[in-house]
Amino acid sequence: xxxxxxxxxxxxxxxxxxxxxxxxxxxxxxxxxxxxxxxxxxxxxxxxxxxxxxxxxxxxxxxxxxxxxxxxxxxxxxxxxxxxxxxxxxxxxxxxxxxxxxxxxxxxxxxxxxxxxxxxxxxxxxxxxxxxxxxxxxxxxxxxxxxxxxxxxxxxxxxxxxxxxxxxxxxxxxxxxxxxxxxxxxxxxxxxxxxxxxxxxxxxxxxxxxxxxxxxxxxxxxxxxxxxxxxxxxxxxxxxxxxxxxxxxxxxxxxxxxxxxxxxxxxxxxxxxxxxxxxxxxxxxxxxxxxxxxxxxx
Amino acid sequence: xxxxxxxxxxxxxxxxxxxxxxxxxxxxxxxxxxxxxxxxxxxxxxxxxxxxxxxxxxxxxxxxxxxxxxxxxxxxxxxxxxxxxxxxxxxxxxxxxxxxxxxxxxxxxxxxxxxxxxxxxxxxxxxxxxxxxxxxxxxxxxxxxxxxxxxxxxxxxxxxxxxxxxxxxxxxxxxxxxxxxxxxxxxxxxxxxxxxxxxxxxxxxxxxxxxxxxxxxxxxxxxxxxxxxxxxxxxxxxxxxxxxxxxxxxxxxxxxxxxxxxxxxxxxxxxxxxxxxxxxxxxxxxxxxxxxxxxxxx
Lengths: 298, 298
Description:
The structure is a homodimer.
Chain A: E1 10-12, E2 18-28, H1 40-56, E3 61-72, H2 77-93, E4 98-106, E5 111-121, E6 136-140, H3 145-154, H4 165-168, H5 174-182, E7 188-192, H6 196-207, E8 210-214, H7 232-237, E9 243-248, E10 255-256, E11 259-268, E12 273-277, E13 280-283
Parallel strand pairs in A: 3-4, 8-12
Antiparallel strand pairs in A: 2-5, 3-5, 6-9, 6-11, 7-9, 8-11, 10-11, 12-13
């Protein structure tokens, strides 16, 4: 970065021969987080993680983040400080500068809009549209752990963030995305933010294919306390895993950059998405994560 | 642009040898606009104009816009349609694609966050920090017209947007900024969004200089109805002009790309900003535009 906060625009210098990636995501109070459930630092972490996860899903390198914050007039300063600390701590893990943004008074709750700019060698971005019949389907890490913690929060349980990192501090899979892109392992990729059933459908639609998921192979997540809670439904429909979902026609290592990689099914010619349980196949309904409300959030 | 809405990130391909410019600006209901004062189409236009004006102030070329929108659940669809039309109409003037964004339900009023990505040949961005003593100070167009219309709105007057384009449909000075950069005319530049007194101070602080403004030279703006209203105070402190303020040590044309250019003073060694009226000089107080509220908006 050449110029950061303090001029009309930030000036970024992407590596030579790279294209520029841009992603923008809201984190809205009572939609994406609740102040009584989520400490400010976790809200900040999750806010930036959403953007970084999109960069990871293209196989990209993050260059800079921009944060627009609208805050209620009566919000305590320490909440804001903790929130910013959460953003900056995660940013520092990727040597990512916070290069600009805007701040304003909110008429409602806390509203954060994170924008992450990244780069990828020209023509090498891993899109959603590259899957073809016969490709295997893989996920990084485990699924459903974040949704399981959310289920406990909904029940009124108080959770300590450090006991539930999958929910409070998901780690964007930048390194895995980079390796998959460099080694040309992934034909299509997306991050799982809305739930596997929704995000797999995006790959199938963009690629003009279908998919068969083997239910027994789903890597069920969860921390010690939530592990018993996580069932197939959490793994298929739970949101905010921020794992990568990708397709490949090559031999894929079982572990990349310290993250386990699991084959969960295959891409099919027939344009429907099914789940196989033993010998039976059923259509996979899209029951994505609806955040906390019935809102229009995407 | 290679990939727009529909993948994890937008993929942009800046011209070879260009750096990337990024700017982000909130447009918040009851802070930057009021639904009873501003038709949705004007809100959309002004929202994008804020971002484009920042690109213009660097001498940049806009590449793509990203819009994050949080909308109250009970907002009429036609308001949203009109807002988007306002954004797209202005975008089309600059052949600018709307390449992504986010949409969510707002707990309060309408919240829009616009991000504009642009580019500029490497090392050629016009910064705020390049002014030196002896440079002349220039502004494009006229000043105070937008604030004068706002004053009428505050008095309860109903205004027809087409009668007050300086307020409802300001035109970002992309073409002027480009010419100033190409001809190396500007040593420092900023856009006037918060009022001349505030924005000139930014140039002085970043450049480590002072300034003397000649009050008689200020190009007072205003449409036929507001012209009598616009006084020196509106021109010095009124916000949302979206004109360019720049310094130069060369001969500057009186008109660039159809926009009048006016010399309003000069940069001084002494680090203070003064206004000269006849033979008397007084310190220029920073009384920038505070939007509609006493908020923390920047």
